[in-house]
Specification:
By secondary structure, the chain is an alpha+beta fold. The protein has one domain. Helix content is 27%, strand content 25%. It contains 6 helices and 8 strands. Strands 2-8-3-4-1-5-6-7 form an 8-stranded antiparallel β-sheet, sandwiched between helices. Strand 5 and strand 6 form a beta hairpin. The chain is globular, with a radius of gyration of 17 Å. It starts with 6 loop residues before the first strand and ends in a 7-residue tail after the last strand.
């Protein structure tokens, strides 16, 4: 199994897995190959893979971020701090069952762009839509004043701009690397599997 749908991941350029694992403060670390690590991170914990095309990816379905979701008000501070340590950090998340989809990019402590749509209407997007979002026609609208009184035509127009899982992959491909396109056999060296400090292995 590789990194695909119904999960969340980071893409960090020109960083070792050890550096990314340190920034995430991962505990209970183990060395794991790509298949075992990505499979384990779908159940719990985080797997930081060896670089693919100069991008180091950290993947975790329920522990990326660790103690909260990307819709949580703490998320912007979390990714800002990671980018202070790592330079550039990209975050992606998608879950077609709950219809949670989003992306974020931060450089040196500044969020360039962040958009996340799910059950919670917070936090609002940060930054302007990027070229790929504009091309795809997603992520360029948010809940406007009076949205609670919208009727069906207004909801239809808004929901037409809401991303789906395929859009997350397209944004990832344009910004950095699409995980669906990584051949499992191309990642031969073991990565690091571990747990954020607020998570204990089950």
């Amino acid at each position: 199994m590789g990194i695909g749908y119904k999960t969340a991941w980071l893409a960090v350029p020109d960083a070792s897995p050890e550096t990314v694992a340190d920034a995430l403060d991962l505990r209970h670390r183990q060395a794991m190959d790509w298949t075992s690590g990505t499979d384990a991170a779908y159940r719990q914990g985080v797997f930081v893979a060896r670089p693919v095309a100069s991008w180091t990816m950290a993947h975790g379905r329920i522990h990326m971020p660790g103690a909260f979701e990307a819709s949580d008000p703490r998320f912007p501070d979390w990714i800002r701090e990671l980018s202070r340590q790592l330079g550039e950090v990209q975050f992606f998340a998608t879950d077609r069952i709950g219809e949670h989809h989003g992306w974020a990019r931060a450089i040196d402590g500044e969020i360039i762009r962040a958009y996340y749509y799910g059950d919670n209407v917070e936090p609002p997007p940060i930054g302007d839509p990027t070229d790929i979002e504009i091309e795809l026609g997603v992520g360029h609208r948010w809940f406007e004043e009076g949205w609670r009184g919208w009727e069906e035509p207004e909801w239809d127009a808004f929901l037409a701009t809401v991303p789906r899982e395929r859009h997350v992959m397209q944004v990832a491909r344009r910004w950095s690397i699409c995980p669906l396109e990584i051949p499992e056999e191309s990642v031969t060296d073991p990565g690091i599997y571990g747990f954020p400090p607020d998570v204990e292995p089950r």
